[in-house]
Design brief:
Layout lengths: L5 E2 L6 E2 L5 E6 L6 E6 L2 H13 L13
Antiparallel strand pairs: 1-2, 3-4
């Protein structure tokens, strides 16, 4: 039993140790990048694409920051 398994950032499924795909991706809450674990290259690409397409917090009407 391994309680410290990584989870895919995209689908939230547990990933076996050694089978992870790590990628430095932009974190929307921070200025830099963070190393994230994914279950496959496809989910890593999809996650990066979603983060790029997300609008930043302060733009448009109804933003979270008022």
């Amino acid at each position: 039993m391994n309680i410290f398994k990584k989870k895919c950032e995209y689908c939230k499924e547990k990933v076996e140790k050694g089978e992870e795909v790590f990628r430095d991706v932009k974190d929307p809450l921070y200025a830099g990048t963070k190393k994230r674990a994914f279950c496959c290259e496809g989910h890593a690409d999809s996650y990066e694409l979603e983060v790029k397409n997300k609008k930043s917090c302060g733009t448009g009407s109804g933003s979270c920051c008022g």
